[in-house]
Amino acid sequence: MKKSISVMAALLALGLTAGCGSNENNAASSGNNGGAQESASSAPKKVELKIFLGGLDRFREQFDGYFEKFAEKEKAEKNIEVTFNSEYPGADNAPQILKTRLATGDVPDVFSLHAGNDMPSFYKAGYLEDLTAQPLAGKIIDGIKPLVSIDNKVVAVPMESLSWGYLYNKQIFSDLGLTPPMTLTEMKAVVQTLKDNKVTPFLLSYKETWIPQLFLPLTVGGLVNSEHPDFVDKMNSDQGSFAEIQEMFDIIDLVNENGTDRAFEVGNDDGSAEFANGKAAMWIQGTWNADSILKVNDKMNFGVAPLPVNDNPKSSMIDVSVSTALAVPPNSANKEVALDLLNFILDDQASNELYQSMKFNPVSKNHTFKPYPWVEDAAVFVNKGQSYQDPVIPSAVKDESGKALQSYYDKKMSREDVIKALDKTWKQANAANK
């Protein structure tokens, strides 16, 4: 009996020991599996955003640096590891490249577009995500929001909010006692004074077609908002012609006849350098080139003024617009992260530094940086009612005007030839949009 009890006790002890070992092994096994599961759940999601920023190569450093800040924020807040496949094609080719990509399904997650030129057709084609419910929409300054909205929907984030006309060298004007002219006759007098003092009046940089194209919004805008209010409506209904506003050529002729040489050898970058170094007193160019100019000569003192198009001072007006804006297509493969990036573009703190570094105007209610002197120059005219919203002209017409005005400068096309080309292109654009 004693032997049996001893054997049973021994067996029981062995069982308890085995059971404890089994429980410990199971616990260890369970702990290891739990750790593996926890490790798997904490692994970051990886996303590559395809970014298409046409005509913004001069700001590559600023954008690339800002995108890295976004990547850090997205990793910390959402555990998403974001990398970027960024393209910066030139301004002349970017619109067509982008349209081809969107039409063929090779869709970038975030892309730039011209708010005035491209937004209506892109919206109609279904390429623009509605951003109205995004936090960014409530931050956009009230006066700018309509410029990035269609059908009361915010469809893009404004980058370059512009008040522009032509650029002039304030030092040269001051030295010669000149003020920005408000009529064509006054501009002719300014030109003569400059020439009498051995100063070239205008910088010509026609290597890239988009630069001579700038004459179109400046001349059409001034004339439509003063003496020809129905011109755009008539053109949109195939009832008008540029022959009705052919006085636009008067200022173009004055510039071409009193400009620097080698116009077709000078593009935007070279033009910025030459203007910064005082090669000419005036340049038909926008304030978006401020950063490029000041990189060459940080002491350059330039201003902006309305371009006179005739002898009616009421036709000399500042063009107020949003050129570059950012958008997300509805079929983006990474829409959630792309929308996060657009919201970060107007981040309350970080975006101040971004916009200021590119010499852009404030566009957010939370932007606190002081406007630049050239912005204040334009504001003098805007506050007096001497401004207009960038005229809505089909992109194809603007593109054609750049090429046609190159040929006009080179005397390969006459006024009549340019008028026929622009009329024809506008009618074709109307037919394509029906």
From TrEMBL:
Keyword Signal tagged: yes
Q: Where does the record locate the signal sequence feature?
A: 1-18
**Location(s) in or outside the cell:** Cell envelope
Q: Does the keyword Flavoprotein apply?
A: no
Q: Which family does it belong to?
A: Belongs to the bacterial solute-binding protein 1 family.
Q: What role does this protein play?
A: Part of a binding-protein-dependent transport system for a sugar.
The name under which this protein is listed is: Probable sugar-binding periplasmic protein
User: Whose protein is this, by species?
Assistant: Cohnella lupini
Tell me the lineage of the source organism: Bacteria, Bacillati, Bacillota, Bacilli, Bacillales
